[in-house]
Specification:
With about 725 residues, the chain is of the alpha/beta class. The chain is built from 19 helices and 29 strands. It folds into 4 domains: about 30-135, Methane Monooxygenase Hydroxylase, Chain G, domain 1; about 145-330, polyphosphate kinase like (2-Layer Sandwich), CATH 3.30.1840; about 350-530, Endonuclease Chain A (Endonuclease, Chain A); about 535-715, Endonuclease Chain A (Endonuclease, Chain A, 2-Layer Sandwich). Helix 12 (about 415-425) links the parallel strand 12 (about 400-405) and strand 13. It is globular.
Length: about 725
């Protein structure tokens, strides 16, 4: 029986330090910069990961989909340690306290991270072993342990070991000639405890085996060895069973899997290099061998072996994670593609083609010229955006195409369309962001392919990642030039567009198009900041204008007029934005925030944030759209954006925030991305002022899931 899902988050955050402790009641706060009013960013992310993990317990979801959330949790934690924890470690080595808005010093944050993540990992493996594995077995999907192998299975596995594993691995006995190897980041390794002397008379206590990424972590048994269902063995079980054959004549005392996580952030001095692409290529080579930040080992590994590994990796007990199962759970994601069980998966979804496009028989320039088109992905097809560029590439009247590329994925249809456009004689400019984390190599390769086809490739602005999502098409119509634009909240990544919720706007509105043209001018050329008519742009006007919009609502409230803010985003961490929301709440503005992940704002603090509510939606699709709505008396305004309310987005990236000017589309966007999600009483988690989250319950009301409502309204499920 699975634990009940709707319980309050079991990991209870400790209160942040409150330097102004002379005020015992929250209502006494007058300084909106007081650290006691802010949640820690890293701990907030771990709370998000806890919410992701709880999806694995939701029995209303198909079983294989629940399993995916275990893997997503594991993948999220990997990146968290590679980037955020490693950054926090570096901060502890710098002079000064470097306290965040929450008042916590880096060493304090690391202690809290360790406490939280150890509990989180223990719960992750408990759910995997005690809840999902039995449920999979009940559904005839079996993971067969070594002690359960039949004689026939053992014989087949032994042949597999000799034919598929032995030829590609290199056991390393540790001695003076073979010191402890440099371990590749996140790779599976085994440490073997040995006794005896080898053929050369060497006496070594340990050996290490590295498992190449080419070896599958899950091995499917043939049908004749798995009657009546799908049966798998773990690669780790195969190594355990046959490790002795790798060390003939030696006595195997123990075989233990382990994995090391390293600092994977790249450190490139952009101003000090002439060729950013080459500098990144060189830095990528060292990514696999950064400073160690976490050691995962089998919980059966003896203390003496663990101490040996910790010493060799220069880590302490705080960075040690003993796990009851495979140490690299996210590599097991392949299970969802190895079994054909549609009954255990979400029903396939077919995104609809926007009615405005169908009315014009897919002639996109004709459709956009008539009126703006709003697309809500993944419920409405991202293929329309790709087709927009394809048609531009083939249209003899199109003269130029400009596009920003942050993440596109390998074998991108969008990239092929740009290449076709260049080969067809169009003037094509691509602003490729080489520093998109963990996509650097793909983007370097993409830039090379585009350049070879004749595309003008630029890498954006030194010191500012280009995170805006824009495409500009210049077309000759009746002897005049007309611009068409796509603006979006998500990347030009077709695979992600099926998994993430995002918003696209296709428009020919002159002011918006002129603004996008100016942004491209700033990205590819040089000069002073250009004044925009409609678009808010980071790092120049986005934050200041958002602060004005928030203050305007506060002014309305002080004047006794209706005042309200609805905003949806991935993360809210920027302290001046939080202070502005606190001040607006104190003025009487009703504020509803839908923040998927990290939120450093504390809602419900008496006298400060009584009027603010924060919710997070975790569901089938990753919530990724950023939408901001302001009541503004009787003149509502709504914006979509590529930017979250974070320091990096508002100050260190090129972002765009664009208004939805068509009133019907504005009403639709408000309903679908804001009102709809505020009605969710089944997949919503409500943020408490102490940083914990409480699962919403339907109670006596009918259960309502926002994503399900959008599926029914906009898409087709087969």
């Amino acid at each position: 029986m699975a634990p009940e899902l709707s319980v309050v988050t079991p990991i209870k955050p400790q209160p942040n330090p409150q330097p102004n402790s002379q005020h015992p009641e929250p209502i006494a706060y007058r300084d909106l910069g007081d650290p006691g009013l802010y949640l820690n960013r890293e701990l907030s992310f771990l709370q998000f990961n806890w919410r992701v993990l709880q999806q694995a317990l939701d029995e209303s979801l198909p079983l294989l989909e629940r399993l995916k959330f275990i893997f997503i949790c594991s993948s999220n934690l990997d990146e968290f340690f590679e980037v955020r924890v490693s950054d926090m470690v570096r901060r502890t080595e710098l002079p000064g306290s470097h306290r965040g808005a929450d008042g916590m010093a880096p060493h304090e944050v690391l202690e809290r991270i360790a406490d939280f993540t150890h509990q989180l990992v223990d719960e992750q493996y408990r759910i995997f072993n005690d809840v999902l594995m039995p449920a999979l077995a009940d559904s005839n999907i079996h993971f067969i342990r070594r002690k359960q192998w039949t004689e026939a299975q053992a014989h087949w596995i032994k042949r597999y070991f000799h034919h598929e594993v032995v030829p590609v691995i290199s056991p390393i006995g540790l001695d003076l000639a073979h010191p402890f190897p440099r371990l590749v980041n996140k790779s599976l390794h085994f440490i073997i405890s040995l006794e005896g002397k080898d053929a050369f008379g060497r006496d070594s206590s340990y050996a290490v085996i590295h498992m190449p990424r080419s070896l599958p972590r899950l091995i499917r048994l043939p049908n004749e060895q798995a009657p009546g269902g799908d049966s798998f063995v773990f690669l780790s079980s195969v190594i355990h069973a046959h490790a002795a054959e790798l060390f003939p004549g030696m006595t195997i005392k123990g075989v233990y899997q382990f994995r090391l996580t390293r600092d994977s952030d790249l450190d490139v001095d952009e101003e000090g290099v002439e060729d950013l692409a080459n500098a990144l290529k060189n830095e990528l080579l060292s990514r696999h061998f950064g400073t160690a930040v976490r050691l995962e080992v089998s919980d059966k590994c003896p203390d003496r072996v663990v101490k040996f590994l910790l010493q060799k990796c220069n880590l302490t007990e705080r960075e040690l994670y003993r796990v009851n199962g495979p140490v690299n759970l996210n590599r097991l994601m392949t299970i969802t593609s190895l079994v054909e069980r549609p009954d255990l998966c979400f029903r396939p979804m077919v995104p609809r083609i926007a009615p405005a496009v169908l009315q014009h028989h897919n002639h996109l320039f004709e459709a956009i010229a008539e009126r703006d088109i709003l697309l809500h992905h993944p419920f409405e097809s991202f293929e329309t955006v790709v087709e927009f560029v394809r048609q531009a590439a083939a249209d003899p009247d199109v003269l130029a195409i400009k596009q920003t590329l942050y993440r596109t994925g390998k074998n991108s249809d969008m990239a092929r369309a740009l290449i076709d456009a260049a080969r067809n004689g169009k003037e094509v400019t691509a602003v490729v962001e080489l520093r998109a984390r963990f996509d650097e190599q793909d983007n370097i390769d993409l830039a090379s392919r585009l350049q070879e086809a004749g595309v003008l490739v630029v890498y954006g602005v030194v010191g500012h990642k280009t995170h805006a999502k824009m495409t500009l098409v210049v077309r000759r119509e009746k002897r005049k030039l007309r611009r068409y634009v796509h603006l979006g909240t998500g990347n030009y990544h077709a695979a992600n567009a099926k998994l993430y919720t995002d918003v696209s706007l296709l428009t020919a509105e002159p002011d918006l198009c002129e603004d996008v043209h100016k942004v491209f001018q700033q990205l590819t050329g040089m000069g002073k900041t250009l004044e925009m008519k409609r678009i808010l742009q980071a790092p120049f006007t986005l934050q200041s204008e958002l602060l004005k919009l928030i203050e305007r609502e506060a002014d309305h409230a002080r004047a006794g007029k209706p005042a309200k803010i609805l905003a949806k985003m991935n993360s809210l961490t920027e302290s001046s934005m939080i202070r502005a929301l606190y001040a607006a709440s104190q003025a009487g503005v009703k504020i509803e925030l839908i923040v998927r992940g990290v939120c450093c704002l504390k809602p419900g603090v008496p006298g400060v944030s009584d009027n603010i509510r924060v919710r997070s939606i975790i569901g089938r699709f990753l919530e990724h759209s950023r939408v901001y709505w302001f009541r503004n008396g009787h003149h509502e305004q709504i914006y979509a954006s590529s930017a979250d309310w974070m320091d990096r987005n508002l100050h260190h990236r090129v972002e765009v925030c664009f208004p939805i000017l068509d009133k019907a589309l504005a009403r639709r966007l408000k309903h679908e991305t804001l009102v709809n999600y505020l009605q969710d009483n089944s997949q919503a988690w409500l943020l408490q002022h102490d940083g914990s989250y409480r699962k919403a319950k339907p109670g006596k009301k009918q259960a309502y899931r926002a994503q399900r409502a959008l599926l029914q309204a906009l898409a087709d499920e087969s």
